[in-house]
């Protein structure tokens, strides 16, 4: 007699052509996921002015309100995704967050806006854990980092579109209309996901009982994850990076408005644009396109060098994270908006290199039937610390420096961002420590 769970059925691989199609659909959905999540960054200043909000309230709106439900619900949804129909989970999630994004445009006060952002978080909780699990089933191991990096392009590209389109639409029609335009495409992609994405498990109708029997219960799955030192080092390193990244994303537009407003207005006028639209396009290009380059490079480098030495999955993020810090500091201290934008183009390349190798490492550290749960736990840590506390922390420190410390709103937000960016050295160190255990702990 044995108490071991039966081995999971081997999934039939999809064709390369269908895999490319499915990855493209998932990328578009994830772009919209991040567009809806990050559009508030460029809209923060006009929202603050109309609703009379403090910076800490902007932090709650852009981070904590979204992150609490996003992180908490991610784990039970991921547990269901271990045996459920993952494309349909993603489709329902996309439809839900899109409706709540549209609802943000009708909010009349801070409480209503926070409630809508909570709804966006509830919907988006059902996207990435099942998507990572699905992509891993679609893709051979030797191409896994590149495939997950391709999906992760949704982060910089969604940020680009959120900033650019959000700023342009807000200038032309107001910030409320920007939320409407952001939410509508997600409803269409929810239908596409429901009708065209395949669930590989459904090709194995007779083996579904074996698949469900092979799924470890939550305690067993957590015991597997808990025993992986590498997982926790990657998780907390990524959480610190998210803490910095989300905090900066929420307050870079206010930083430019407050420190370089006159120069931006002059430049925007030369292009026939309003200042919000121009800044949205500029930040979208600077942060989004360069972030996309870094994300792609991370997947490529991880597949190339990880095949020789698994430590590359954490060495690449460790080195690149450290190299990005000086560029951020120089950008914050630059005297002109143009110089600041140029300097801010370098950190996204370096700071997004971790996506492909980091996510691929986590998928390989656990058995196939625990992958969605591992992703959900990873995102729980990343988003609770990063998205939940990053914008709130930057906003609270900015308020403290602006008011009690007497620096004013412009210098307050500048030095608040400066303080938080220095935490990148800690994230780099954690990634580097993971080199000592990743080879022994990789299992799939």
From TrEMBL:
Keywords assigned by UniProt? Membrane, Transmembrane, Transmembrane helix, Transport
Q: Which Pfam families match?
A: MFS_1
Q: Record's PROSITE patterns?
A: MFS
- Show the stretches that span the lipid bilayer: 18-35, 56-77, 89-107, 148-169, 175-197, 231-257, 277-298, 310-330, 336-355, 376-395, 415-434
Q: Where in the cell is it found?
A: Membrane
InterPro entries, sorted: MFS, MFS_dom, MFS_spinster-like, MFS_trans_sf
Hydrolase found in the keyword field: no
Cellular-component GO terms for this entry: membrane
The UniProt entry lists membrane topology as: Multi-pass membrane protein
Gene3D superfamilies xrefs? MFS general substrate transporter like domains
Query: What is the protein's given name?
Result: Major facilitator family transporter
């Amino acid at each position: 007699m044995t108490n071991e769970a039966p081995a999971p059925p081997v999934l039939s691989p999809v064709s390369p052509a269908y895999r490319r199609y499915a990855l493209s659909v998932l990328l578009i959905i994830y772009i919209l996921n991040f567009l809806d999540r990050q559009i508030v960054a460029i809209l923060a200043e006009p929202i603050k002015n109309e609703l009379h909000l403090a910076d800490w309230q902007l932090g709650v709106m852009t981070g904590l309100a979204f992150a609490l439900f996003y992180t908490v619900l991610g784990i039970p949804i991921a547990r269901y995704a271990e045996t459920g129909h993952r494309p349909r989970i993603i489709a329902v999630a996309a439809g839900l967050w899109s409706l709540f994004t549209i609802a943000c445009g009708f909010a009349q006060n801070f409480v209503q806006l926070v409630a809508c952002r909570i709804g966006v978080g509830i919907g988006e909780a059902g996207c990435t854990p099942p998507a990572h699990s699905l992509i891993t089933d679609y893709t051979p191991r030797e191409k896994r980092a590149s495939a997950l990096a391709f999906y992760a392009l949704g982060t910089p590209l969604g940020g680009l579109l959120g900033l650019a389109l959000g700023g342009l639409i807000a200038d032309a029609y107001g910030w409320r209309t920007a939320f409407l335009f952001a939410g509508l495409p997600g409803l269409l992609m929810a239908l596409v996901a429901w009708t065209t994405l395949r669930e590989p498990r459904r090709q194995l109708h007779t083996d579904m009982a074996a698949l469900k029997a092979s799924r470890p219960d939550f305690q067993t799955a957590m015991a597997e994850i808990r025993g992986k030192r590498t997982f926790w080092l990657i998780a907390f390193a990524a959480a610190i990076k998210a803490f910095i990244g989300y905090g900066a994303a929420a307050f870079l537009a206010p930083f430019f408005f407050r420190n370089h407003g006159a120069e931006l207005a002059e430049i925007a006028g030369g292009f026939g644009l309003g200042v919000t639209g121009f800044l949205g396009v500029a930040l979208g290009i600077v942060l989004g396109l360069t972030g996309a380059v870094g994300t792609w490079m991370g997947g490529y480098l991880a597949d190339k060098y990880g095949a020789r030495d698994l430590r590359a999955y954490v060495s690449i993020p460790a080195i690149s994270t450290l190299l990005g810090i000086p560029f951020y500091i120089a950008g914050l201290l630059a005297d002109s908006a143009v110089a600041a934008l140029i300097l801010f183009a370098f950190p996204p390349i370096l700071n997004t290199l971790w996506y492909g190798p980091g996510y691929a490492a986590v998928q390989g550290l656990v058995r196939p039937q625990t992958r969605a749960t591992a992703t959900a736990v990873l995102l729980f840590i990343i988003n609770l610390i990063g998205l939940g506390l990053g914008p709130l922390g930057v906003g609270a420190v900015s308020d403290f420096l602006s008011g009690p410390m007497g620096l004013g709103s412009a210098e307050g937000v500048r030095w608040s961002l400066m303080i938080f960016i220095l935490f990148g050295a800690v994230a780099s160190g954690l990634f580097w420590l993971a080199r000592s255990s990743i080879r022994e702990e990789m299992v799939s």
